[in-house]
Each structure stands twice: as C-alpha cells, then as structure tokens.
Write a structure and sequence with these properties.
Number of helices of chain A: 2
Oligomer: heterodimer
Distance between the termini of chain B: 31 Å
Shape of chain B: elongated
Number of helices of chain B: 8
CATH architecture of the largest domain in chain A: Sandwich
Shape of chain A: globular
CATH class of the largest domain in chain A: Mainly Beta
Largest sheet of chain B: 5 strands, mixed
Strand content of chain A: 35-45%
CATH class of chain B: Alpha Beta
Number of strands of chain B: 8
Largest sheet of chain A: 5 strands, mixed
Strand content of chain B: 15-25%
Radius of gyration of chain B: 29 Å
Structural class of chain B: alpha/beta
Order of helices and strands of chain A: EEEEEEEEEEHH
Helix content of chain A: 25-40%
Order of helices and strands of chain B: HHEHHEEEHEHEEHEH
Number of domains of chain B: 1
Strand order of the largest sheet of chain A: 2-1-9-8-5
C-alpha cells in the first residue's frame, strides 16, 4: 500500500456533499467512465448523470450525481455537481416515485435530464441497499 | 367615563395581542435569516471551485470569444431580473428596490453601456427609447415595476415561488430562459436587481450584469463572496490540463452554470436581506407596541384614579351633608 491519497471534495451550489481523503474515485464523465488514482495527470472534464464510486481503505462510498464537471490537479479532486447525494441519503422508494413522475411528463428536454438523474439515484441506492443487506419491497 | 375606560382596556388588549404576533414574526424571521445566511455561505466552495476551473480554462476562454454568451453588443434592449419578496411587512426592503430601479431608469448611462474589460461600447439609443423588459421573482416585484415604469411595462416571466429557500435546480428554468433570450438577441444585456446582505442591520440594493458574461464582473463577484479569492486559484500555479471532451464543450457546459450560480446567489442574498429587514421591522413594531401599551395603561390608571377620587369626594360630601 502506498500512502498516496487524493483529497476529494464534491460540492453543489447548495452544500458541500462530501469531503475526505480517498484512495481512488470512479466518475461518470461525458465520454464514459474514468477512474482517478493518485498522481493522475491534471484533468478537467464534464460529467453526466451517474454514480460516483470512491474507495477509501477497504470501504466503498457511493454517490449519485446529475452531472457537473470535475477538476483534478496535484492530487486534489474537486467535483462541481449540479446535484449530488450520498447513497445513504437517497430514499429508494421516493427516488423511484420521482422517476415515475418525470417519465409521465416525458417530452421536454429538462424532463430527460430529470429521468437520468433519478435513474442514477435509484441505481446508487439499490447498490447501497444490496450491500447493506437491506431488503426492499418488490 | 365608564365607556372611556372600557375603550382603553379594549385597545390595550388589542395592542398586546398585536405585539405577540409581531414578536413571533420577529423570531420566525430571525430563524429564517440564520438559515438563509448559511445558504449564502454554502455557495462559496462551489463558486471558488467554478472560478478555479474557469481560470484554468482561461486560454481556451480567449480563443473562444465568439461564443454567444460572451458576445458584446450595442445595448438597445435590456432584460432586468428583479428579486423581491412575496409579502410585505419587511420594512423598506421593497421600497429600496423600487428606488434603485427608478434611479437606474432615470440615469440609464450605466445600463446602456456594455464593456469587455476596459473597452466600453456606448449605446447610440436615446434615453427614452431604451427598451427594458422584466422578469420578476416574488409577487411584490410586479407591483414595484408597475409603479416605477408604468403599468404598460412588459414582464416576460414571473417566478413567485423562488423567494423562499430555492433549490439550485429550481433556478435552472429561469437561467435557461434568460440565456435563450440573450442568444436569440432579443436583449443586448441582462441585469439582476437584488439586495446584498452585508449584515443584519445593513442591506444594499444592487444591480449586476448577468449577460454578456464579463470576466470583470465574475472576478468582482467572487472577490465579494470572499475577499481571499486569490488563495483559491486566481494565482494558482500553471498546470497543463487534459481537458475532456474538449475545452469548447467544457466551456459550453460551464457557462450556463455560471449564470445559474450568479442568479442563485443573488436570490440567496436577497433572501437573507429580506428576512433580516423583516426581523428589524418586526422588532421595531414590537417595541412600538410595548410603548403604546405602556402609555395606554398609564392613561387608563389615571382615569381610574380620577374616578375613585371623585367617588370618594362625592361620598364624603354626602356624609358631610347628612351629619350637618
């Protein structure tokens, strides 16, 4: 194990969602998925809706985001997200309801973005529940 | 006499219950203000980081002068976003906004000017022919505009629900509307009138340019958000970045967010200002009600004492009449 780490921070206009020293982070960038390890080259990219997976020690931390952009330099990773939530903050049932609501309104550009956002939230929440062994109703 | 005391008692009672209400409103506003101030502070990390990314993209920025949102035109029409409150009872909050707008309309030199850095573009339009349309936030804004700019003033959209603790997402439709209008060249400049929260007793009504995006204004805003902006990347070391998908696309992604952030920030500032203005107004009302209740109590006691004195005088006079 190296003692190299990344100073990780994810902020939205409303709050700082998560801030910690981590070993690696996997992010949904516009062109696919990128895993950033310590000493990665300096990097700026825009992000789409999806899940962010952080590894710290043996622990995995999941977050959902609806998009944004990231800056990595000098082992400091800053994510500027439009919205972001930690997995344990997401209420799966309500996320599913929100997605269903958004799907009903389908057609507008903003709705497509909302659907993606809630889909990402649901995915992240499901993983979280599975990992913690919490059973959800069908 | 009896009627008079009853009247005074009734008024004391009503003043006291009004006082209870204003006291409660004062406390509610104090709590809301604290939350609103916290929300203003919460934007800071985002603003810093956004600025830092933008600085690092500066080279791309310069190659990118042709972008619609950076385009500086001669000002013929202006879109003004006015952030007000939904309700009254907040002191001079809305009056100050009205005063600010009236001043800007009467002295449109600043409104008419467009600048990039130090370069200024003067408008050739006569003062009277400058077209100003509005977007309102908060119900009071429509009243203000009708009062200041006449009832035929054109309000293109109103967002009444944004006044209390908006989410960044809720600002998005407003920001999008503004950007679309600017890109369609319906307006040559977009400004926002809001109230800057300086402290609980000091709020300043301000006007700020939203579009075209001006580097000077962004710098100013960041500097105001935090005077230590320099520590956060303005003078960071030059790093070669790998930029994905491309500088152009990333910029296209960042610009709308800058606009959103600016509008969101203005609303949050106004929110904090509004609540503190209301808190002070209610505090004054509570104090005034206390004074009033006190003077009425005094008057009531005087009348009561007079009545007693008079009765005693009458009784003793009667007794004296019987004895003699």
């Amino acid at each position: 194990m190296s003692d190299l780490t990344i100073q990780f921070k994810i902020v939205t206009p409303e709050r700082t969602v998560f801030e910690d020293t981590v070993d690696q982070a996997t992010l949904p960038v516009t062109d696919g998925e990128v895993t950033i390890l310590p000493n990665h080259r300096s990097y700026i990219a825009s992000m789409k809706a999806g899940e962010i997976m952080i590894k710290k020690g043996g622990e995995e931390i999941l977050l959902s985001t609806s998009g944004g952009f990231l800056e990595f330099a000098g082992n400091e990773l800053v994510i500027l997200a439009d919205t972001a939530e930690r997995a344990e903050e997401i209420d799966l049932k309500r996320a599913e309801e929100a997605k269903a609501r958004a799907e009903k309104l389908k057609g507008e550009a903003t709705v497509a973005a909302a659907i993606q956002k809630h889909a990402a939230r649901i995915q992240v929440a499901r993983k979280h529940y599975t990992k913690k062994g919490i059973r959800m109703g069908e | 006499m009896a009627n008079n005391t009853r009247e005074i008692r009734r008024r004391i009672k009503s003043i006291n219950s009004t006082r209870k209400i204003t006291r409660a409103m004062e406390m509610v506003s104090a709590a809301k203000m604290r939350r609103a101030v916290a929300a203003v502070l919460a934007i800071r990390p985002y603003a810093h980081s956004a600025w830092s990314v933008l600085t690092n993209l500066a080279r791309a920025f310069e190659q990118y002068g042709g972008h619609g949102m950076l385009e500086v035109r001669e000002v013929k029409s202006i879109l003004m976003i006015v952030v007000s409150s939904n309700r009254g009872l907040c002191g001079a909050f809305n009056t100050n906004i009205a005063r600010k707008i009236r001043y800007e309309l009467d002295h449109p030199e600043r409104l008419k000017m467009n600048r990039i850095g130090n370069k200024k573009i003067e408008s050739t339009v006569k003062d009277g022919e400058l077209k100003v349309d509005y977007i309102t936030i908060g119900r009071k804004a429509a009243e203000i505009i009708a009062r200041v700019d006449g009832s035929d003033a054109h309000v293109i959209a109103s967002f009444a629900h944004l006044t209390y603790q908006p989410k960044a997402e809720e600002v998005r439709p407003l920001a999008k509307l503004v950007m679309d209008e600017y890109l369609k060249k319906n307006y040559d400049k977009v400004v926002i009138v809001y109230t800057d929260y300086v402290s609980a007793i000091n709020q300043q009504t301000k006007i700020r340019q939203v579009l075209p995006i001006s580097k000077v204004d962004i710098e100013k805003q960041i500097a105001e958000i935090d005077q230590h902006a320099k520590e956060y990347g303005l003078v960071g070391p030059k790093v070669e970045y790998k930029i994905e998908p491309s500088p152009r696309e990333v910029l296209e992604f960042i610009f709308p967010r800058l606009i959103e952030m600016q509008i969101f920030h203005a609303i949050e500032e106004s929110n904090a200002s509004k609540e503190s203005a209301r808190m002070i107004a209610m505090q004054n009302a509570t104090d005034a009600a206390g004074d009033m209740a006190h003077s009425f109590t005094l008057a009531y006691n005087q009348i009561r004492q007079q009545k007693i004195t008079q009765e005693i005088a009458e009784i003793s006079a009667g007794a004296a009449a019987i004895e003699s």
